[in-house]
Amino acid sequence: xxxxxxxxxxxxxxxxxxxxxxxxxxxxxxxxxxxxxxxxxxxxxxxxxxxxxxxxxxxxxxxxxxxxxxxxxxxxxxxxxxxxxxxxxxxxxxxxxxxxxxxxxxxxxxxxxxxxxxxxxxxxxxxxxxxxxxxxxxxxxxxxxxxxxxxxxxxxxxxxxxxxxxxxxxxxxxxxxx
Length: 178
Fold this sequence. Notes:
The structure is a single chain. By secondary structure, the chain is mainly alpha-helical. The protein is 76% helix and 0% strand. It is built from 6 helices and no strands. The longest helix is centred in the C-terminal third of the chain and has 37 residues. The radius of gyration is 21 Å and the shape is elongated.
């Protein structure tokens, strides 16, 4: 293996772009991009407050109503971000869900929605006692954290990819004799 045949690092391997030029333009022009940009941190703040209330209830047995109300609010915020996210995905990629660029994030989002919805159903029907409801909420919250991390990693990768495309490669300058 010669000097020119060195194995490529994982950073050197070309990855498909998250957005085509047209999708990036639609993303930047869509009002849903701003809505998602506002709702995501708001939902995260609601999550943090609710998580604290749930953990407080589980540790002390106090604050059940506050914890329950916070989980309902968190779930409603999740529904809002999921609905507007579908509208964003339609505006950018032409489909409401499962666009190739966000396929696995959307798949996992379905689990997040299912667990949050299961909480609401169990609460409304009395199917679970308070402690079990709180544990179900924690399971829903764990999936939410994983899903939020998926999206953050995807957005970070898109930013890094955009930065690489915007910056001329030093390697190209060396090859061209510059």
